[in-house]
Inverse folding.
């Protein structure tokens, strides 16, 4: 065993190096080799440390839960029609009441993303302009479920959002056809003051196709403006 250790030349276990026995190299060459390997190892270790530190910071500090309320008004009419109600021509609808309000919850996740779920009560009441006016109601709970992204800008943070929506009607007048599922796109701006978040946003909802046989049906394209406050 001693003979093997003494007579077997030691070679550096790294690919690409000279086949010359490592211990037979000049001292300054061996020193340079050691320092080069040490520098590479230090750089690698520092890179791994920074990546782990960044991940811990992102995932350990930016998860959060917010709850609050949102409310607003649509800027499109809920109803549309062929213009004939039981064979009688009408000249349009008059909006009596049309607003949205309800609770909102949000889960914030790293890198500016969030998941939001709303429960908005939508009261939509109209009057048909017939020789004898007719009141129409289409009150519903709308449940948008959204993915959000906040841009990393201090103080005022713009955001975009998208997802889907489901609604269930609590009061729908006979003869009105309305779809229950839709697609949501939107955007807005948010101001954060300590734990309070104040927001203003515009949303576009494209509802599914209602029954074409109904004399009155919901407008498939719904636009709305909302203000919110969450903690």
């Amino acid at each position: 065993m001693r003979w093997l250790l003494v007579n077997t030349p030691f070679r550096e276990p790294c690919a690409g190096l000279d086949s010359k026995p490592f211990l037979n190299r000049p001292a300054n060459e061996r020193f340079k080799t050691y320092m080069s390997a040490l520098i590479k190892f230090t750089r690698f270790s520092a890179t791994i440390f920074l990546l782990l530190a960044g991940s811990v910071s992102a995932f350990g500090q930016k998860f959060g839960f917010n709850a609050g309320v949102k409310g607003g008004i649509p800027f499109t009419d809920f109803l549309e029609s062929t213009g004939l109600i039981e064979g009688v021509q009408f000249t349009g609808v008059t909006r009596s009441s049309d607003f949205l309000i309800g609770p909102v919850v949000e889960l914030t996740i790293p890198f500016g993303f969030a998941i939001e779920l709303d429960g908005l009560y939508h009261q939509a009441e109209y009057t048909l302009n017939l020789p004898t006016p007719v009141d129409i109601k289409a009150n519903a709970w709308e449940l948008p479920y959204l993915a959000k992204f906040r841009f990393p800008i201090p103080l005022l943070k713009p955001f975009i959002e998208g997802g889907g929506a489901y609604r269930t009607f609590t009061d729908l007048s006979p003869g009105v056809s309305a779809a229950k599922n839709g697609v949501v796109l939107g955007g807005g701006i948010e101001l954060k003051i300590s734990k309070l978040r104040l927001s203003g946003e515009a949303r576009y909802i494209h509802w599914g196709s209602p029954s074409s046989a109904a004399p009155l049906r919901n407008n498939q394209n719904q636009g709305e403006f909302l203000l919110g406050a969450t903690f």
Observations:
- The chain has a mean pLDDT of 81.
- Residues 27-61 form the longest helix (35 residues).
